[in-house]
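Reopening this ticket.

The earlier resolution said the output was attached, but the attachment link was broken on my side. Pasting everything inline this time so it's all in one place.
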Amino acid sequence: MPKRKAEPSQGLAKRRRGGVPAFGAETEDDRVNLSSNLSTASAFSTRSVPFTGPIPNLSALCARSFVANLQALHETRDDWETTLKWLKLMPDNLVPKLFAMLRSSCPQILTNAMITSYFLRGPSIVLTSDVPAVNKITILAVAGAGNSLHELHLTGFVKFADSVFATVLPFMPSLRVLVLRGCAKVGSATAEAAAQSCPLLSTVNFNYTAVPPVALVPLLKTCSDLKVLKLAGIPNWTDATFAKLSSAVFQDESFTLRNIQTLKLRQLGLSESSINSFLARCPNLTRLDLSFTHVHRPLPVVLAEARIEKLSLTSTAISSIDVVALISSLPHIKSLALGALGGGQGSSVAIGNTSAMTMTDQTLESLTNVLKDFGQLEKISLVGNTKLGATFRRSGALEYFIRCVGRKCKYLNLSGVHHLQSLHLAGLLSQDAEDPPPRLEQLILNNTGVDDDAAPYMAYCSNLVVLELAGTQISSAGLFSVIDTCPKLQKLNLTSCRSVSVTDRRRFFEAWKHNSEET
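Inline output:
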């Protein structure tokens, strides 16, 4: 068989994008912008692989067909009028799923009149700023859903006033989930309306809004079923403003947020003492995000007793000794983010300064010795720890970590670990014939030192679904061999891979297929 040749190196113009950070199962917040000189222009190649799951039910198949043909129906007046009549007859429980599919596939067809007439019903309503037709009138029309609405998601509406959101909540006494992420003007009025009108709330997401600490007092006192509270990136959360919340709620030593399981305090300007006073009132936490905060030493006893399953400490100034000690007390951990430790609230200056980083090869070895016996760990991120691999004497720390911990996870992010070399990935190989292949489904190696020598190791990851290699020296020849042995691979990130031609970076699966046919 003729040997595959790599495409000549070509440049890729750099573009920059901005946006409101988000939080989710795998959060966009976790994708840290580690350095101002890293390109944010993305070149993803995608493909569909044969479906091996259960056969979709009839309603799902019908919804897919409808969405696929909506443009054609929209262009014919008689067909469109008939379509709208059928939409009116759709059962409420099917509306949220169909609306989500339409927002993703053809948002340009959705008008304000169409949204308000046919889709603002059912148990869940989701409106995002990505849909051009959504305006203030659309938001106000949500009130019509009334008592039947259990979930309301309004995200990214930076221009609408606090009063707009506060106006609709009194009509939703059965609301359980309220997500207002990125609605920058949401503040005291909305928080107070939620407390007064929605006592059954179990999830509240105020990420990247303007809700002050004191506005949460009635919410914390009234919504006793509250399980999820997300407060990331809210400006003006300082010790002084937090003191008003603390004096109104936490001075009562018997007051606890016993049902809170998920707490997100990411990017808040609170001191460690304020954060720890909050944590002390949440004895049953399972998911905690303290990334980009001033925390130096979170309460280890509190976190250990809470049975933490997901912990994010990215870009905090926690010392190496404290990190290892803390993690060793969390045997139930499933998801762990320790990116850019020492970065100091994520400032670009601190993150770009290698000397500020606190995770060294020695720390990684100690951490590996702890994590290798944790059987529930599925996701780990060490993104941006630029000192890793820098000590020649301990150059095996990365390989040791990948062999003992990384290959056992489903998700591994080593982006921005500049000293990571191809040989470190030898840890992905089995140690004996009885070892199964790595569990990895998502492997992220952006802006590392890997090249074609890493191909045999990555090719051993037969369960891979997503592989990100932006800014590396990988070539077409190396990638061909990886795709050959990874039948589940659906997504490749080849941004700024100069050994892959610019034209192939977004269509690499097609290039692989063409190459396979030729050889």
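Reporter confirms the inline version is readable. The first helix runs from residue 58 to 74. Residues 1-40, 346-350 have pLDDT under 50 and may be disordered.
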